[in-house]
Design a protein that fits this description.
Length: 245
């Protein structure tokens, strides 16, 4: 089973296969020489679907599901990247985390050997095949100012060729316009949530646009890390219960 929190800036490290593991979309960029070039700036565009090798990602995800391990030779670059955020947050206690974990696992039948694969990415739902391989879909979003601050507070990113640092203005010239283009339905849904017109939870079939129809959207706004984890854990619990009924 896969659960998928996603935003344009989230980066965390891969954890070992066991009850759960973590797979990053950022590990499936094409080589830099194959990236599209933005016609306005002349810069490599890392933030569009054409920059991602979706076929390789789906193949890896399928292998993990079938074998409960990464393919031989798989090497994540994500654990080489500094998180680099100006935000200060209070760690969540282990007791609280254990309570969330227990809440989720109470929905998993004891006779089933279930492994969770958490798929992390900024553009998971533009590819229909990839979207169809994910059982529980979540989209975590944040305001423009927060996303820009997170992106620009990082030094750079490990790549197949070495290291990439965003040129000045890259967020406003490349990242944000592409985020609005490719995740537009989620941006509109988030705006509706802020107006009090939407809860973020998806409902019966046919009540949403195709891209967002089976995705729970969580807007962080000014929420704390703990409140976000609580919200996401609650949604995973709800969707797991529906899956195993």
């Amino acid at each position: 089973m896969e659960t998928t929190p996603t935003s344009s800036t989230r980066r965390t490290k891969i954890i070992s296969i066991g009850l759960s593991t973590l797979l990053h979309q950022d590990d499936f960029y094409f080589p830099e020489v194959q990236l599209p070039i933005d016609p306005k700036t002349g810069l490599a565009n890392w933030d569009c679907p054409q920059a991602i090798d979706f076929a390789a990602m789906i193949k890896t995800l399928t292998y993990i599901r079938d074998h409960n391990e990464f393919p031989e030779g798989f090497d994540s670059l994500e654990d080489k990247n500094p998180i680099g955020s100006k935000e200060v947050s209070t760690p969540i206690s282990q007791t609280v985390l254990d309570s969330y974990r227990e809440q989720i696992m109470t929905q998993v039948p004891s006779d089933k050997d279930i492994k969770f694969v958490i798929v992390d990415g900024f553009m998971l739902y533009v590819n229909e095949h990839l979207c169809d391989t994910i059982d529980i879909k979540l989209f975590l979003t944040a305001p423009y100012e927060v996303l820009k601050d997170r992106r620009e507070s990082r030094k750079g990113y490990a790549t197949l060729e070495g290291y990439w640092e965003d040129p000045p203005g890259y967020f406003d010239d490349i990242v944000w316009p592409n985020f609005l283009t490719w995740n537009g339905p989620f941006v509109e849904l988030t705006d509706a949530m802020e107006r009090g017109e939407e809860s973020g939870e998806y409902g019966p079939p046919g009540t949403r646009a195709t891209m967002t129809k089976n995705v729970d959207v969580v807007s962080s706004g000014n929420a704390t890390i703990q409140s976000m984890v609580e919200r996401v854990s609650g949604l995973i619990t709800k969707r797991a219960k529906e899956m195993f009924q």
